[in-house]
Amino acid sequence: MARWCLARTVTVVSLTVTLSAVAVRYPSCRLLHPLLHPFRELAYSAKNFSPRFNEKDGQVERRSLSGLYEVENGRPRNPSGRTGLVGRGLLGRWGPNHAADPIITRWKRDSSGNKIIHPISGKNILQFVAIKRKDCGEWAIPGGMVDPGEKISATLKREFSEEALNSLQKSRAEKEEMEKQMNRLFNQEHFVVYKGYVDDPRNTDNAWIETEAVNYHDEPGETMDNLLLEAGDDAGKVKWVDISEKLKLYANHGNFIRLVAEKWGAHWNEDPVPGCHK
């Protein structure tokens, strides 16, 4: 009995230390409740649960955007290494959890419709639609998880409409009008910003997030003028945000936004353009 109690005490202390380490690494989001995933998978101890990793498993995509990953003792191994947590954690699936991040942008304009130039960099200011996450309170791109059998293009459109336009609470007539404007925006030429592993605070040794971030740019700004931003689903707030290196965003969303700014030659930092010194 004494040995059992000692072992139990050591286990509890070890677990406490592990959780403390995780809290230090991700102080903003790890200790808050997870987003409820509608397709959370069973534990490995459950009967009849035998996922086929590194392949299309029925309607579930278990292939990684980064190529083949190792499977050890029946469990997938995070291709980016150890995280300090084992199991599935807060994520819905073992192995890769595929997500989609729609980055909707427009130029910041004055009341006359002219593009606004940053006074120091001399570059036009780009804006994107950002949401404030309910789970941790950080500003982020309004993305989400890909449903089984769903195409990435459909996920991008669905997540934006649910989180940034509150489509789940709209009437049928409102949804039909919203769909027309959304089709104009999402059927145009777009820029794939990033595809691959994401350094997300919910990642574990056996489950991780991979995303496809895609930029849809409303050059004249007319399409988004006809869509009223309204926070819904997992979003607490939504608004247009000026893009710059001063932004503090969830996980590595800031990296995606920087790539978008570079793509459009927009303002990012306050280093003046050569030849523009006074």
Strand content: 15-25%
**What is the terminal separation in angstroms?**
80 Å
Structural classification = alpha+beta
Helical run tally: 5
Radius of gyration over C-alpha positions, nearest whole angstrom: 22 Å
Largest sheet: 7 strands, mixed
Q: What's a concise summary of this model?
A:
This protein is an alpha+beta fold and 278 residues long. It has helices at residues 2-25, 152-164, 172-186, 222-225, 253-264; strands spanning 56-57, 60-61, 71-72, 75-76, 95-107, 126-133, 139-140, 144-145, 191-197, 207-217, 235-242. Strands 5, 6, 7, 8, 9, 10 and 11 form a seven-stranded mixed beta sheet that branches. It has a two-stranded antiparallel ribbon with strand order 1-2. The protein has a two-stranded antiparallel sheet with strand order 3-4.
Could you describe the 3D structure shown?
A hairpin with a 2-residue loop joins strand 3 and strand 4. The N terminus is likely disordered. The chain is 24% helix and 21% strand. Strands 5, 6, 7, 8, 9, 10 and 11 form a seven-stranded mixed sheet that branches. The chain has a two-stranded antiparallel ribbon with strand order 1-2. Strands 3-4 form a two-stranded antiparallel sheet.
List the topology elements.
Blueprint: H1 2-25, E1 56-57, E2 60-61, E3 71-72, E4 75-76, E5 95-107, E6 126-133, E7 139-140, E8 144-145, H2 152-164, H3 172-186, E9 191-197, E10 207-217, H4 222-225, E11 235-242, H5 253-264
Parallel strand pairs: 5-10
Antiparallel strand pairs: 1-2, 3-4, 5-6, 5-8, 6-7, 6-11, 9-10
Keywords summarizing the entry:
about 280 residues, seven-stranded mixed sheet, two-stranded antiparallel ribbon, about 25% helix, disordered N terminus
